[in-house]
């Protein structure tokens, strides 16, 4: 038995969580390894000290007890959490992926905030004046039109969706939008929009 494995089994042995066969293997290793035997005695003494502190009125100061508690081995709850992570690698990976996506999306949100971005197919049919995107009367945009961090004014036609992110939209009486009109003003809505668009792009590739 390797010393690293023996040390990891010592905690379970002291907690009475070690199967009989592994208890015998650990005892045999302790007889032959002086380093592990010394380590086991330290853990055993710490365990006994913890037991006495929990079952008797503490004579030591709160500071001393705090230092002793801080030097104790990892609690069973921490080991249970690590064991749960090992038993559910797919769920753990998915959670980490979603967390990374959320953090990166928030970073991009902060970087993009304030900068005008216009996306679409027929952008030659669009007029941009400062932070205002205009679809003039008599002009037709074939496909979706997305405007981030700006004002959108539609006087002509858009044969698709119009999405305005952190901006405003004005539709004249002459305007015609065949698709949906979406207005996104909050960071979480923007992140959801980005994530759904990413998966849509992957699906159609």
Automatic annotation (TrEMBL):
Domain Putative zinc-finger: 3-37
Family: Belongs to the zinc-associated anti-sigma factor (ZAS) superfamily. Anti-sigma-W factor family.
Protein's UniProt name: Anti-sigma-W factor RsiW
């Amino acid at each position: 038995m390797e010393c690293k494995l023996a040390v990891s089994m010592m905690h379970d042995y002291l907690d009475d969580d070690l199967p009989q066969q592994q208890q015998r293997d650990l005892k045999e290793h302790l007889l032959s390894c002086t380093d592990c035997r010394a380590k086991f005695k330290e853990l055993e003494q710490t365990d006994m000290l913890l037991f006495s502190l929990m079952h008797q009125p503490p004579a030591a100061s709160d500071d001393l007890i705090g230092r002793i508690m801080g030097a104790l081995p990892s609690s069973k709850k921490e080991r249970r959490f690590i064991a749960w992570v090992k038993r559910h690698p797919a769920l753990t990976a998915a959670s980490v992926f979603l967390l990374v996506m959320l953090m990166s999306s928030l970073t991009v949100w902060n970087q993009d905030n304030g900068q005008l971005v216009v996306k679409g197919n027929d952008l030659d049919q669009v007029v941009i004046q400062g932070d205002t995107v205009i679809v003039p009367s008599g002009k037709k945009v074939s496909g979706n039109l997305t405007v981030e961090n700006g004002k959108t004014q539609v006087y002509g036609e858009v044969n698709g969706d119009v999405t305005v992110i952190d901006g405003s939209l004005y539709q004249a009486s002459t305007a015609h939008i065949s698709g949906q009109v979406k207005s996104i003003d909050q960071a979480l809505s923007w992140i959801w929009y980005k994530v759904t668009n990413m998966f849509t792009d992957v699906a159609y590739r």
